Amino acid sequence: RKFIETAKACLKICRPYKVPLLINDRIDVALASDADGVHVGQSDMPARVARSLLGPDKVIGVSCKTVEQAHQAWLDGADYIGCGGVYPTSTKANNSTVGLDGLKTICLASKLPVVAIGGINASNAITVLGIGPPNLKGVAVVSTVFDRSSVVGETRKLHSMLTEAVLKAN
């Protein structure tokens, strides 16, 4: 119940800014809160089942570490792949890393947009985005923002740095 209430509160913040809210691992919460979608891992509900429950208009992301998993996500109707951990992370216990080479391999093999996940922070985000494949669409960060005294300050700092890097690249 608390997760659903929190999701609804987050939606009130996200919707005016047209920022989609995806719920991690919990299709029931995504449905109950009318979130914009869900992100599932390999040990969660398969993307094809999530798609059948959420319908065609919701966003579904799938965590992938291998080319085979990325291909299956595409077959199952996922909208994007979260690839990683690129680097070691404290948010998942015993999480193996794919490194930059693994990320690039999955990007080159994937028919879906890819977001890099795991251990990404202000000191390595530009390196991650610089590996080249055009379907690498972004990075996901958790600890680099939430383990700080000012979530807003860290978010603005990271956003500014990434925006500047993208402008220089173009």
TrEMBL record:
SUPFAM superfamilies in UniProt: Thiamin phosphate synthase
Stored InterPro entries: Aldolase_TIM, ThiamineP_synth_sf, ThiamineP_synth_TenI, TMP_synthase
Superkingdom assignment: Eukaryota
Organism (species): Linum tenue
Pfam families: TMP-TENI
Pathway stated in the Swiss-Prot or TrEMBL entry: Cofactor biosynthesis; thiamine diphosphate biosynthesis; thiamine phosphate from 4-amino-2-methyl-5-diphosphomethylpyrimidine and 4-methyl-5-(2-phosphoethyl)-thiazole: step 1/1
Thiamine phosphate synthase/TenI domain location: 1-145
Enzyme Commission code: 2.5.1.3
Gene3D superfamilies: Aldolase class I (3.20.20.70)
Keywords tagged on the record: Magnesium, Metal-binding, Thiamine biosynthesis, Transferase
Assigned GO CC terms: chloroplast
Protein name: thiamine phosphate synthase
A GO BP annotation: thiamine biosynthetic process
GO molecular function, one term: hydroxymethylpyrimidine kinase activity
PANTHER family to which the protein is assigned, alphabetical: HYDROXYMETHYLPYRIMIDINE_PHOSPHOMETHYLPYRIMIDINE KINASE THI20-RELATED, PHOSPHOMETHYLPYRIMIDINE KINASE
Phylogenetic placement of the source organism: Eukaryota, Viridiplantae, Streptophyta, Embryophyta, Tracheophyta
Catalysis performed (reactions): 2-[(2R,5Z)-2-carboxy-4-methylthiazol-5(2H)-ylidene]ethyl phosphate + 4-amino-2-methyl-5-(diphosphooxymethyl)pyrimidine + 2 H(+) = thiamine phosphate + CO2 + diphosphate; 4-methyl-5-(2-phosphooxyethyl)-thiazole + 4-amino-2-methyl-5-(diphosphooxymethyl)pyrimidine + H(+) = thiamine phosphate + diphosphate; 2-(2-carboxy-4-methylthiazol-5-yl)ethyl phosphate + 4-amino-2-methyl-5-(diphosphooxymethyl)pyrimidine + 2 H(+) = thiamine phosphate + CO2 + diphosphate
Matching NCBIfam families: thiE (TIGR00693)
Broadest EC class assigned to this enzyme: transferase
The UniProt record lists the keyword Transcription: no
